[in-house]
Amino acid sequence: FFFFFFFFFFFIRFTSSVGTNVLGNKCFMFKGKKSDIKGNWSYARSWCKDQGGELAVIDDQYENDFVSSYLKDLELPTWIGLSDLLVENQYAWSDGVSAVLYTNWNDKEPNNAGGDEGCVSMHASRFFHGTWNDTKSVMLQKKKLHLQSKA
């Protein structure tokens, strides 16, 4: 048995503040420390919404590379705003507005292993860096990390 660690990130459109990284019309804020942040996908989304944002929507390879470049030294998965929680096998962004224009699934993903993987994380390991995996929305991890992004 091992622990998964997660960062999450959110975006707020058209605003930026100290500690954010701007890409086009989005500002990404990376938030979290593996020693003190806990949270599943729903917690990550709620936290982002409390900050005035949303879990990140990634629209193309350029944005994916931008986000994953900040994770390269962490080697920890990161929650993004994609899930199939509303309709099984129909992935949608958690902002409820953005179309799914781009995906970067790892090989053989999404696979819905165990029949209950509905939320998406971005890999940060050197072998699968930047690729996506469907993951259980509520897992037994003790600690998860989170990032936030603003657009």
From TrEMBL:
CDD domains: CLECT (cd00037). Residues 23-134 form the C-type lectin domain. Residues 1-17 form the signal peptide. Keywords: Signal. It holds the Pfam family Lectin_C. Gene3D superfamilies: Mannose-Binding Protein A, subunit A (3.10.100.10). The keyword Hydrolase does not apply. PANTHER family: MANNOSE, PHOSPHOLIPASE, LECTIN RECEPTOR RELATED. This is C-type lectin domain-containing protein.
